[in-house]
Amino acid sequence: MFDSLAEKLQATLSDVRGRGTLTEDDVNAAMREIRLALLEADVNFKVVKSFTSAVKERALGADVIGKLNPGQQVVKIVSDELTELMGGAAGDISFSSRPPTVVLMAGLQGSGKTTATAKLARYLREQHGSSVAVAACDVYRPAAVDQLIKVGHQAGATVYEQGTDQDPVKIAAWARDRAQTEGKDVLIIDTSGRLHVDQELMAELANIKKAVKPHDVLLVVDAMTGQDAVNVAEQFAEVVQFDGVVMTKLDGDARGGAALSVKAITGKPILFASTGEKLDQFERFHPDRMAQRILGMGDMMTLIEKAESAYDEERAAELERKLRKSEFGLDDFLEQMRQIRRLGPLQSLIGMIPGMGKELRGVKVDEREFDRIQAIILSMTPQERRHPELIKGSRRLRIAKGSGTNVQAVKQLIKQFEQMRKVMRSVAQGRMPDLGALMRQAR
Amino acid sequence: MARDWRDLFIVDGALPGGPDPISEAAPETQERRRGMFRRLRENLRKTRQALTSEIQATLFEDLSEETWERLEEALIYADVGAGTTARVVGELEREATAGSITGGEALTERLTELLADIARSDDDRIDLRPHPAVILVAGVNGTGKTTTIGKLAWHLRNELDKTVIVAAGDTFRAAGVEQLELWAQRAGVGFVKGPPDADPGAVAYDAVAAGLRDGADVVIVDTAGRLHTQDDLMAELAKVKRVIAKQIPDAPHETLLTVDATTGQNGLRQARLFSEVVDVSGLVLTKLDGTAKGGIVLAIAHELGIPVKLIGIGEQLEDLRPFDATDFARALVGAN
What we know:
The structure holds two protein chains of two kinds. Chain A is flat. Mean pLDDT of chain A is 82; it is low at 354-359. Chain A is 56% helix and 9% strand. Chain A has an eight-stranded mixed beta sheet, sandwiched between helices. Chain A contains 21 helices and eight strands. By secondary structure, chain A is an alpha/beta fold. By secondary structure, chain B is of the alpha/beta class. Chain B has two domains: 57-119, Up-down Bundle (Four Helix Bundle (Hemerythrin (Met), subunit A)); 126-327, Rossmann fold (3-Layer(aba) Sandwich), CATH 3.40.50. Chain B has an eight-stranded mixed beta sheet, with helices on both faces. A two-stranded parallel ribbon of chain B has the order 1-2. Chains A and B meet through helix 2, helix 6 and helix 9 of A and helix 3, helix 4, helix 8 and helix 11 of B.
């Protein structure tokens, strides 16, 4: 599903190459594919309309020379335009020069406000060293206050709450005063979910805003939202003039076209992305990556950054030295494997590599395979790990028993390891081996 | 005429699929229906006011390329999806061009029919004849599972005089158990929970055991919200289902998936993956009281054959209704 646009465009424009430029017919054909892809990604149809006409203008008469084929060329134009439309560099909340900075959270029911409130609290503590309080103003949903008390504490924030019998406007004002007295840097106000067409509750939200004069109003939007995202965004923009957006549930497989719709309709930037059930799965939003995601072009940047943050440079240098001296053993291999696993579940890593989506569609990565490999290596003596060539008959049997696997598995692991060592050595010596041939061999 | 609660459920003594004599005649039932409709109308009025793209009968006055394009846009706008939209509009255009239907009203009527046909299913009732009938409720985070269970329990008790037990299987979300407990109190039904951080399978097991012991009519099992892409959590859900079947082999008798009406094309993926794991037998389309029209259920019904059984139209206990394909199709095209 994910890289179908690039492929489809390539097929649509396959005969263009010889001619050198894109004709109007070519561009029209390409625009139909783009329109469909964007609609499937839940971008609002009005946004799609204006977007495709902008892309069309740029694509017409574009030269089809250089390294890109016509399909790729159009994809690049689309991607550039999308990124531009999504906004420039990643933003952040704006801090007040006179604390507390007050952040008001708003959104529909079930969009993930309470969780986002706790995640933002944790983020501000970690990234900015702020002391954070959260205020429980969702007095309508059963047990919402209990939920914020729990997740708020987990996030290391102080929770201000007055149960569910108070008026939310009063609770918010009270919390603001308290945050000031207690010298908090930031106060985040959680509110109950409300429909954008519910006049009574929207008026209440406006009153909360009036009472606490927040520095930032954030709209929380579910990444799975369909065409209706524009209605929601328009109404909330009208009533509370929000400053930015938090996109939630981005760890699913929704293409997230709502992000584009909201940005295009209101002009407000998307500031944060919420990407999992854990409180630390919350990050700044990157417009360029979202553009790629909507188009289904993988998320190479995220992968690279993940790798960077999880990788220990000293260890890497040590490994490189070992590789050059051919001292790379199974212990080092195990260490490498653990480094990779630290990046996250392999399944999600694969999804981020452009092109892999299609190749490996439906392939389930068995994480337990790694556990088996680990068990085998840990059943070896340190000497065996450094010199796997020592492992023959009885040693092999002992290792198989010790790891709860069989002789075949031990044999195969060692064979794969030898092959890998060969590749790495030649890479370290500056020769690039034919990876494709090696992959075929390994199978 | 929208369906009544008694049309939705198959209960002892009633013929499956047959009309229920009580709901046809009794004046108090008719009266209640009117009250119900007023509520639905009020909730939907908000929706209409905010709509920006509606299909008017005037759209069909002058049939041209633009007519079909605007119709396509209206359906896309309702989240029906490009594929289903193309099929429906293509069929209508074909019939109109062939001259078998003429006039704006007839075309609107035919459009409604085409959409309702996709949404309609012979298998859209909930069988309450097993004792207890076990209903498992699953769905993505924030789609309204717990709220739906509260409302469903209330209706079963108040409309059909059933004894109900609800099970707090959402042991993951902070305060998920407390939320269901409050709903159970409001609805006046039995409530089963485990110790803090209990295994959801164990809670489901206890609830079924309690249902058997107390002779309850219905046991409804809540589960934690989960994304369909989280394999470990989906495996956990499959386990909850297996555990339920330990005491009653053909249970759960009904597995409902909640789908938020604001959900776009991802809803199809949700339904597909949840179905693979727990064999979903019906959808609950929630939050229809906003401006979203929930057109994604057409794609789900068409591609996966999973019928919508219930709709959520508000936050109060009574704001849950049996799904009616014709009413839904009318709302979708903005016809009255």
